[in-house]
Design goal:
This protein has 122 residues and is mainly β. It has no helices and eleven strands. 0% of the residues lie in helices and 54% in strands.
Amino acid sequence: QVQLVESGGGLVQAGGSLRLSCAASGTIFSINAMGWYRQAPGKQRELVAIITSGGSIIYTDSVKGRFTISRDDAKNTVYLQMNSLKPEDTAVYYCNAQGVKGYYGASPSSRWGQGTQVTVSL
């Protein structure tokens, strides 16, 4: 069973930076895309950024130029560097892995992390 464990959330002042990490553990043959979603109180969960195994990247418009997503396939880890943070970035950030295979020929599945709180104060 593949599990995702996030770290790096916390409280930061507006304009500050945080780096989130998400490590996948378990028996892993391949992971297609890894990404970050966030959910603010009273709002739906939304995509923040996603990176595929081929290196394609998508950002939601509100974080372009401020956030950078990257992945280390040797460590099955995805990172989210968040700079110039704003109060509206406050949310629980969830890591997601898509197309997860435990062995060659396995059916792909999706996994979610438990979430990490990011709070940006004025």
